[in-house]
Amino acid sequence: MSQQDVEDLDVERIRTDFPILEREVDGKQVVYLDNAATTHTPEPVVEAMSDYYRRYNANVHRGIHHLSQEASVAYEDAHDRVAEFVGASGGREEMVFTKNTTESENLIAYSWGLSELGPGDEVVLTEMEHHASLVTWQQIAKRTGADVKYVRVDETGRLDMDHARECITDDTAMVSVVHVSNTLGTVNPVSELADIAHDHDAYIFVDGAQAVPTRPVDVEKIDADFYAFSGHKMVGPTGIGCLYGKADILEALEPYHYGGGMIRKVTFEDSTWGDVPWKFEPGTPPIAEAVGLHAAVDYLEEIGMERVRDREETLTEYAYDRLAAEDDVEIYGPEPGPERGGLVSFNLEGVHAHDLTSILNDHAVAIRAGDHCTQPLHDKLGVAASARASFYVYNTREEIDALVEALEDARTLFA
Ligand SMILES: Cc1ncc(COP(=O)(O)O)c(C=O)c1O
């Protein structure tokens, strides 16, 4: 994509799809830089969901009546659309809807991990895993007697790939790695890690919560066995997450939850399961949310994921450079470029990240403070918390300026 194409991106037009960006608090327009936590929802997504509730709200899979048929088709089609968006050629047979990325991690950890892991097996994580992956695999390993190893993060905020090669051995059963770190912004070489895992007959689970919203992702090119992400971080609704899995692996797995809508045959003695993905989706699923996620994918594709990525890179570089120019700001993670996603975590000397965020809030600048669900990584960085500004396609340079200018207030207050 040329620089011209990126410049051509009509951010002002895009912003009109997000009325919440006009929101004022105490007379100030909100500057929303908390997109890694959740993105805003554009009108076409809200419209698609309200159209569902207005015109064809019904439960799926069960009804012969017209509304249920329409709802079922929409729900099922959403699986195909999301699968296509991430390059899963098997369509719905490789795309399970869950509640969020966290549930997608748990689904595989319980369904596969509890039965397949045991003493002598190893699960390889990285020091930059989100708790969604770290806590889940840590606890499943405890229950099964497997060991957990962590690939080191080096001083530049990248994975130490030599250490990855040492950690992943023939004892490794699962490698679970975050694609784009929600704290450091690092874009990890997941395809290379998949090759290493497969050389040792291990599976690789990729946490794509920060990747799918911000760049083109092709699960088949990566050769991921499992790949997870959340609707609410990609201009879709809350309450829906996605789990890609290779068709033959999902086919062989036992379900994680049980109930109605997932079965083929039930007797008083036993039950058999329906096809993938339905066998992993018991009970009434997130139907309106699936309709909304379908619309979100359409929306993002209309912009083009290359443009979304390039816009993220442009904004991140701008924010990084502005913050790096301040002597009292410490930034974590790699320098801007293709190896950094659209967020910047930092600390202002002498000001706790929570205080900083609260002062920024007085300026209606919304960022996040805390450990961002990466406590062990913060321990390693030697800080209890950091402030994180994260950008999306509708953000502007002026909003980043507002953030940097508001830092002055924090300095004055804590001087
Ligand atoms: C990298 C990463 N993984 C997993 C998650 C968990 O996502 P969710 O809360 O939607 O389950 C997040 C959310 O912040 C994340 O950034």
UniProtKB/TrEMBL annotation:
Catalytic activity reads: (sulfur carrier)-H + L-cysteine = (sulfur carrier)-SH + L-alanine
Sample GO molecular function, one term = cysteine desulfurase activity
Residues in Aminotransferase class V domain copies = 31-403
Could you tell me the EC number(s) of this protein? Answer: 2.8.1.7
Q: Which Gene3D superfamilies has this protein been placed in?
A: Aspartate Aminotransferase, domain 1 (3.90.1150.10), Type I PLP-dependent aspartate aminotransferase-like (Major domain) (3.40.640.10)
Q: Decide whether keyword Magnesium is in the record.
A: no
Q: Which residues form a coiled coil?
A: none
Top-level lineage group: Archaea
Alphabetic keyword roster: Aminotransferase, Pyridoxal phosphate, Transferase
Q: What name appears for this protein in its UniProt entry?
A: cysteine desulfurase
- Source species of the chain: Natribaculum luteum
